[in-house]
Design brief:
This protein is α+β, with helices and mostly antiparallel strands. Helices cover 41% and strands 15% of the residues. The chain has twelve helices and nine strands. A five-stranded antiparallel sheet has the order 1-2-9-4-7, sandwiched between helices. It is globular, with a radius of gyration of 19 Å.
C-alpha cells in the first residue's frame, strides 16, 4: 500500500488541506478503517471501487466519484480489487465549496458527486484522469482554482476553526463564542453551515486527532496522553477512542506503533494519521515530546 499527501499551491491553501493518493495493486481484503479528521473530501476511485461497510451492517460499493461529507464515526472500507484513489481534502471552513447549503444534511454520507453537481463531477472526473496521465496534480489544482473563484468562506468560522485547531479541540464552546464576540445561538448554526458539523463535534474530532498523533509519535501510555489532551480521565479517553475509531486503545496503539502484531486492518488508518504510508522508527521507551498539559474539559 502506498499513501502520500501533497500540499496545495499557495493560492489554494485557504480552501484545500492536501491532495492525497492511495494505491495498492494487490490489496489485502481485510476491512480497513479511516478515522474522522473534521474535513470533507472530493474522491475519485479510479481502480476497483471500495466496498463501504455501514454501521447498519449493509455493504455497498462506493461511487467512483463522490463527496465524502463530515463523518462522526469510523469509516470501514474493503478492497474488491486493485485500489487507486485520489482525494482532495478541503479545509473545514471551506467544506461547503461543493455541497453548498446541503452540507449539514450530508453528515455521515458520501453521495455520488454527480447527484450534487453533474457538471462539476464530469470536470472533476476528467481532472482526476488527467492526473493519472500526467502524474501531475496541476489539472486538479486548475479545476479547484475555478471553483474557488466564486466561493467565499465565512471568515468568522475560519477564525473559530483556527482557535479550535490551536487548542487541539480542548476549548469549551462557550469560551470559543466569547473569544469570537458572538453568542452561542449565532455560532452554532453558522459553524454547522460552513463546516458540516457542530463546533462541539469538531472539537471532539480535533482532540481525537491530537491524541492519535501523540500515541503514534511517542511511547506514552493512554492515561498520560489523555491527561495531556484535556480528557477528564483515562476512561473518558477510552470511550472517545472506541466511539470514534471502533477499536480499543490497546489495539490502536499496537497498530500506530509500527503496525506490529499483524494489525493489517489498521494500516490505512495509521497512514491517514501520519500523512504517509511510511512507518516511523519506534521511539525509545520513556521518550516524551515537550507539551503543555491543559486542564480537563467536560
Amino acid at each position: 500500500m502506498d499513501y502520500i499527501e501533497h500540499p496545495p499551491p499557495p493560492d489554494l491553501q485557504r480552501h484545500v488541506r492536501c491532495l492525497w493518493v492511495l494505491r495498492d495493486d494487490a490489496p489485502d481484503t481485510q476491512v480497513q478503517v479511516i478515522y474522522p479528521d473534521g474535513c470533507c473530501e472530493l474522491l475519485a476511485e479510479l481502480g476497483v471501487p471500495l466496498r463501504f461497510h455501514g454501521a447498519d451492517g449493509q455493504v455497498r460499493s462506493d461511487q467512483p466519484f463522490c463527496f465524502a461529507a463530515q463523518q462522526r464515526g469510523p469509516v470501514r472500507l474493503q478492497a474488491a480489487g486493485p485500489v487507486f484513489c485520489i482525494g482532495v481534502r478541503l479545509k473545514p471552513a471551506s467544506s461547503a465549496l461543493v455541497a453548498g447549503a446541503r452540507l449539514p444534511g450530508l453528515r455521515d454520507h458520501a453521495p455520488d458527486l454527480y447527484t450534487l453537481d453533474p457538471a462539476f463531477a464530469a470536470r472533476f472526473a476528467d481532472a482526476a484522469r488527467a492526473y493519472v496521465a500526467t502524474r501531475s496534480p496541476e489539472p486538479l489544482w486548475r479545476l479547484l482554482r475555478e471553483l474557488d473563484a466564486g466561493f467565499a468562506p465565512d471568515a468568522l468560522i475560519e477564525r473559530a476553526v483556527a482557535l479550535l485547531d490551536a487548542a487541539d479541540g480542548d476549548l469549551r464552546i462557550a469560551e470559543l463564542a466569547r473569544r469570537l464576540g458572538i453568542g452561542l445561538r449565532t455560532l452554532q448554526p453558522r459553524f454547522l453551515a460552513a463546516v458540516g458539523m457542530t463546533p462541539k463535534e469538531y472539537a471532539r474530532v480535533r482532540r481525537l486527532q491530537a491524541l492519535l498523533r501523540t500515541l503514534d509519535a511517542e511511547d506514552a501510555d493512554i492515561a498520560d496522553a489523555a491527561a495531556r489532551h484535556g480528557y477528564s480521565d483515562q476512561a473518558h479517553a477510552t470511550h472517545e477512542l472506541v466511539s470514534w475509531t471502533g477499536v480499543t486503545p490497546a489495539r490502536l496503539m499496537r497498530a500506530l506503533r509500527g503496525n506490529r502484531e499483524g494489525e493489517d486492518a489498521l494500516r490505512l488508518a495509521a497512514a491517514f494519521v501520519r500523512g504517509s504510508s511510511a512507518v516511523p522508527a519506534a521511539p525509545a521507551r520513556g521518550t516524551r515530546s515537550p507539551g503543555k498539559r491543559r486542564p480537563a474539559t467536560a
